[in-house]
Amino acid sequence: MRNTRTARRAGAAALGLGLIAGASLLIAPNASGHGYTDSPISRQKLCANKTVPDCGAIQWEPQSVEGLKGFPAAGPADGRICSAGLTQFAELDNPRGGAWPTTRLTSGQNHTFRWQFTANHSTTDFKYYVTKNGWDPTKPLTRASLESQPFLTVAYNGARPPMTFTHQGQLPSGKSGRHLILAVWTINDTANAFYACSDVQF
């Protein structure tokens, strides 16, 4: 009888600890952040909108293009930048003969950049790179294709952005024709960043 009572008490204690642990997990902040740009519209969002067909898995999770941070010194390999190096999203690296739909922009003018988040995250900054003049849009994106410095950096100092986040920034000057803008959202408290490629026409 005594052993039975002891077992019941032990079982109740274990159940209580389990409930406490479960509650802790429920109230813990979300440790994963996800997002994409839709102004200028990114390749992943074009796939999610079904504007571009044959996109594979990215059409169901445009927010998940996540790779190592530290670009351009680190991060995804050349030719795999738009997919953040994720093989399941390789369609984003396919230049499609230079035929991705473009957003029309005016070189040197201000633009409202917009991110949509499905899970926001403590953020270091947002950086925007553009391709060099003479870039070949029929080839996958490489570091050598991009200007060496971002044309816009928005520091966020570890804060969490709202679920829809916009900011104004000046577009690069001296650009005309088809180009690609690479947006990099650097996470503050993980080793990762999120990448988004937007095809534009200046």
Automatic annotation (TrEMBL):
Subcellular location: Secreted
Domain Chitin-binding type-4 residues, every copy: 34-200
The keyword Signal appears for this protein: yes
Signal peptide: 1-33
Main location: secreted
UniProt keyword annotations, A-Z: Secreted, Signal
Superkingdom of origin organism: Bacteria
Transmembrane stretches, start-end: none
Protein name per its UniProtKB record: Chitin-binding protein
